[in-house]
Design brief:
The chain is α/β, with parallel strands linked by helices and 716 residues long. 33% of the residues lie in helices and 19% in strands. It binds zinc ion.
């Protein structure tokens, strides 16, 4: 299960709007109308306050003070920065990095991701003298920033130990454990080890990756057999995979024997006594390893707070059979795209009822194809029908399995619900089963709620996992993660000397430590480490000896990396909008050659706020008249921007991004300092060659571009 982070910290919205489903992506600030409609006392009062002759800097102005406008602007920027800063790249502090070139014969374990904040982008680095392996390299799909698809762990530290990296070892094929690989492996090439299904998933995500791989890069994988306790040598390490149950086939614990001792990374797990694929957790092997001695257990911590034991996946099988028996028409089942055992369960129930199965959702179809290809599914011939022909089938003969159980806006189920799907529109008599629960702390609750509302309005009967008792059916979903007693079992089976909770929120990892202490691990032998903490191990000591750079790299829909600076601008744009003014000034006399052009996006609807825009135009005219020839161009632009910001704040109580574009026409190229020229301060003009002029123009253009790109930062 991919765990998302909570990103609720949004800058306060000035209006009492409810914000839509999810921040900037879902939120739509109403434009125009009431949106910008708070001209305090109207734009006309403005002219009286700042009559002719008064400095357009407006220090003496009454009403909204300049200070208030500046403060509001700063606040907006700080809010945006705070939102963007939830995901910062590693500090590229050389000193900090140099500290950690440490080749002492200690085993070092470093969580580059997954050690705080919800347990996503899971990634552990294990290093000993000249060898290092990476266990898991996931992505964080829960990043809720405009235009950002996910985050991956910052690998700045790997740069400094590049020569040591021998392998990537993957516990299982969920994206929060493999999603970072297509970004990271080409930069630090090494073979990827995993079980057959996991390697199938790895190949799948490399195939579907949006960006081309660098020239000469070749994906190297090593498929390991988790049933034969096969051990492979990697540098000074030996690796073994141990079968474990979770919500995706091929899940394993990673056992790493090192010169200092044995460590076990559990990966995500539960102990399902009766899994549908009959592939039980290899408890015997875990116990054996425990008896031989385990130096450190790195145990996932997702749901340590849940009491008892997680029910077996098999407890939900009958529920599907029951619902299919009663459903009057078509059945649609939404679930996590990689949960192939559950797909198998649904296929079995459908076959039992003489229904055909259609699949939809790109990620799900892709994983299914891989699973079928690798022999992980048993699908009777003729069971699957293409989604395109599903519409022409008899209602009572069809089951559609699809993505969308989290209410994701563009998922197959959502599109069917909205009538935007190419082949299927949901209708009365249809049955929808949501065979998952909203990912905790993801904000998906409300998305699911809205989707269920829509479906219900259309007369569709919806079975939600959480309401199964209300519906009088058996459970429709069980978690893929352990509950408290199973986490305790893992500790008791492996009997580690040291205990390191991983892959979870800090507070949950702390609970995990409490649990370990209850099982007899001395508190001194536990550590709640953060991302970047260097845990050093000798056979009888564990301590944190420092930090390496750690952080988040943000990635957009294309797979490209997006800078934090860009994200901050996007947040500002999303929250406040943008106003640009384009003016053309005659250099010689400082006259405006055209009326100022005002462009506004996402701020207020200009047509309905003509008064404000006319006011703004007048302000700009006045500023040009009074200031253009008195100060140099750079200074003038800053003043103009401040002045516009102030005026707009006064009129609307908002601080959009303001971009003044000043075209200066006439005269020779003087490095863009008309004021100096006009005031006679400029050095006597030399004759310049065409190349010099061209170079100068180029430089000016670059400067202007820089200013436009970094404008906000400059005026802080
Ligand atoms: Zn998982």
């Amino acid at each position: 299960m991919e765990i998302n982070q909570n990103n609720s910290a949004k800058p306060p919205r000035p209006e009492g709007q409810n914000g839509g489903p999810r921040g900037p992506r879902g939120g739509n600030r109403p434009q125009g109308g009431n949106g910008g409609g708070r001209p305090q006392g109207g734009g006309r009062g403005r002219g009286q306050q700042n009559g002719a002759g008064q400095n357009p800097d407006g220090e003496k102005r009454s009403g909204v003070s300049r200070g208030a406008a500046v403060r509001a602007m700063k606040r907006t920027q700080m809010d945006a920065q705070r939102v963007a800063n939830q995901y910062l790249p590693a500090a590229t502090d050389e000193k900090r990095r140099a500290n950690f070139i440490d080749d002492s014969p200690r085993l070092k374990i470093i969580g580059l991701g997954g050690m705080d904040g919800g347990g996503s982008k899971n990634m552990m680095l294990v290093e000993y003298v000249n060898d290092a392996v990476i266990i898991d390299a996931g992505n964080d799909l829960g990043v809720d920033l405009p235009g950002i698809n996910y985050g991956i762990a910052d690998t700045a530290y790997m740069d400094s130990i590049k020569h040591k990296i021998r392998a990537y070892i993957i516990t299982h094929g969920h994206l929060d454990h493999i999603g970072g690989l297509p970004h990271i492996v080409p930069k630090f090439p090494a073979p990827i080890y995993g079980s057959k299904f996991t390697i199938g998933r790895v190949e799948e995500i490399f195939e579907n990756f949006g960006l081309p791989m660098p020239d000469g890069f070749e994906l190297q994988t090593v498929t390991m057999n988790e049933d034969t306790h096969e051990r492979l040598k990697i540098g000074e390490f030996y690796v073994e995979l141990v079968r474990i149950t979770h919500s995706i086939p091929g899940s394993t614990c990673v056992v790493l024997d090192t010169p200092v001792g044995r460590i076990i990374n559990t990966g995500d797990f539960r102990f399902d006594p009766n899994p549908l694929d009959h592939e039980r957790s290899d408890l015997e092997r875990l116990a054996e390893l425990g008896n031989e001695g385990v130096l450190a257990l790195l145990s996932e911590s997702t749901t340590v707070e849940r009491m008892g034991r997680t029910p077996s996946e098999s407890t939900i099988e009958q529920s599907f059979v029951d619902i299919m028996e009663q459903a009057p028409g078509r059945i649609f089942i939404g679930l996590f795209s990689t949960n192939m055992n559950r797909v198998q369960m649904i296929v079995n129930a459908a076959v039992h009822h003489g229904r055909k199965v259609a699949m939809d959702g790109r990620s799900m179809v892709s994983t299914l194809e891989m699973a079928v290809r690798n022999g992980f599914m048993k699908i009777p011939k003729g069971t699957f029908v293409p989604i395109a022909s599903a519409a022409s089938m008899k209602d009572e003969e069809l089951v559609v399995v699809c993505t969308g159980s989290q209410g994701e806006p563009s998922s197959a189920l959502q599109r069917m619900a909205n009538g935007e799907h190419r082949h299927i529109k949901l209708k009365e008599q249809d049955t929808v089963i949501l065979s998952s629960t909203p990912i905790p702390e993801s904000g998906n609750d409300s998305l699911v709620g809205q989707m269920v509302d829509n479906l219900t309005k259309n007369g569709v009967h919806v079975f939600e996992a959480r309401n199964h008792e209300l519906d009088g059916v058996g459970p429709l979903h069980v978690s893929g993660h352990a509950s408290r007693d199973e986490y305790a079992d893992m500790i008791n089976l492996t009997k580690p000397k040291f205990f390191i909770p991983i892959y979870g929120a800090y507070r949950v990892k702390q609970r995990h430590i409490d649990l370990a202490i209850e099982q007899g691990i001395p508190r001194a032998n536990t550590v709640n480490a953060l991302n970047g903490d260097v845990i050093a191990l000798t056979p009888d000591k564990m301590e944190i000896i420092g930090q390496v750079p750690s952080g988040t790299i943000l990635v957009d829909q294309t797979g490209a990396v997006v800078s934090n600076v860009v994200v901050k601008d996007r947040v500002l744009l999303a929250e406040e909008g943008l106003v640009a003014v384009v003016i053309t000034v005659d250099k010689r006399n400082g006259n405006l050659l055209t009326s100022p052009d005002i462009i506004s996006r996402g701020f207020i609807y200009m047509r309905e706020q003509e008064e404000i825009m006319n006011g703004l135009r007048n302000e700009v005219r006045r500023a040009v008249q009074q200031r253009f020839k008195r100060v140099d161009l750079d200074r003038f632009k800053v003043e103009l921007k401040d002045h516009m910001t102030h005026y707009l704040f006064e009129q609307t109580q908002r601080s959009p991004i303001v971009i003044p574009v000043v075209n200066v026409i006439g005269g020779k190229s003087e490095g863009g300092k008309p004021g100096q020229q006009a005031n006679g301060n400029a050095a006597p003009a030399k004759t310049k060659t065409a190349e010099e002029i061209a170079a100068e123009q180029q430089e000016r253009f670059q400067k202007m571009r820089e200013r436009l790109l970094t404008q906000d930062a400059r005026t802080d």
